[in-house]
Design brief:
Layout lengths: L2 H16 L12 E7 L4 E10 L8 E10 L2 H14 L4 H17 L19 H18 L6 E2 L6
Parallel strand pairs: 1-4
Antiparallel strand pairs: 1-2, 2-3
């Protein structure tokens, strides 16, 4: 990865950490899930308002927000995640998470420049993978009909 691209990606992470998008409790949420990373103390709650499915179309995320505390990686990742999954269905969110997980565990980002690729450097710090995926796990859990609290200790990141 070029030095310019690395710097651009670092700026994306810093920007999402300093000015998180969609931060705060969503008053209209009809789904909520909480995630916990006991390894470093990160916590993340994700609030969703799902539009009901109609005429055989799957439910979509109409609104999403997050709240919590933790390291810059966990907070920036949760912020970026909210911008990426709004308007998506549960299968689309799971596919995005799979791509994101591949990026943070292998460091291989897609050819096209994507904000998700900003987290490619996380693979060099295995303990930080759980930080980067915490918000995603909470969002996926919130999409379930009966969400439960999730913890990074129950996932194989």
């Amino acid at each position: 990865m070029s030095a310019d691209l690395t710097e651009l990606y670092q700026q994306v992470i810093l920007d999402h950490n300093k000015r998180p998008r969609n931060r705060g409790k969503l008053p209209t949420a009809n789904r909520v899930a909480h995630g916990d990373n006991p390894t470093c103390g990160d916590q993340c709650s994700v609030y969703l308002r799902l539009e009901p499915s109609t005429s055989g179309t799957p439910a979509r995320i109409a609104e999403i927000s997050f709240d919590g505390s933790g390291c810059a990686i966990s907070q920036a990742s949760a912020s970026l995640m909210t911008t990426q999954v709004k308007g998506k269905t549960a299968p689309e969110v799971e596919a995005l998470y799979k791509n994101f997980h591949d990026i943070v565990t292998t460091g291989n980002a897609p050819e096209e420049i994507s904000d998700l690729a900003a987290f490619a450097g996380v693979h060099a710090f295995p303990a930080r993978i759980k930080c980067a995926t915490l918000g995603w796990h909470a969002a996926i859990e919130a999409l379930k009909a009966e969400p439960h609290e999730t913890t990074t200790e129950s996932h194989t990141d």
